[in-house]
Design brief:
By secondary structure, this protein is mainly α. Helices cover 66% and strands 6% of the residues. A hairpin with a 2-residue loop joins strand 1 (11-14) and strand 2.
Length: 125
């Protein structure tokens, strides 16, 4: 696969960051897959990108590797901070929900979920 982008597939900066033109997919989404060492074909399929869009994204990441790495790390740090904020903000409410008695009429559903959970745990071992 060559890394020559098609002129119509460009990378633009939006309020979401570096984005593939005509999509809502950021280069950070592509970098998540690259960090996990997925092949380009899989990345394109997973993100529903045309070959031109994928090539443009890969070419941009390759051409701007050092600055993309810095920006990607900042995005990951911001996401972790946001996750911690919301986990702390919702901690008490989630504890209250977990401590509440089960709603009447859902006993069969809860039993089925518990069986599936136990089966899944047994398969892991």
């Amino acid at each position: 696969m060559t890394l020559a982008p098609h002129p119509a597939a460009t990378i633009i900066r939006t309020e979401r960051g570096l984005t593939i033109s005509g999509t809502r997919i950021t280069l950070y989404d592509v970098m998540d897959y690259l960090q996990a060492q997925y092949p380009p074909k899989f990345i394109g399929d997973a993100l529903a990108l045309t070959e031109e869009q994928l090539l443009a994204a890969l070419a941009y990441v390759e051409a701007h590797n050092s600055e993309m790495e810095l920006e990607y790390q900042q995005i990951l740090n911001d996401a972790a901070e946001t996750r911690r904020y919301w986990e702390e903000k919702n901690r008490e409410q989630l504890e209250r929900i977990a401590a509440a008695p089960p709603r009447p009429g859902y006993e069969a559903v809860r039993a089925k979920l518990q069986q599936r959970k136990a089966r899944r745990e047994a398969q892991k071992q």
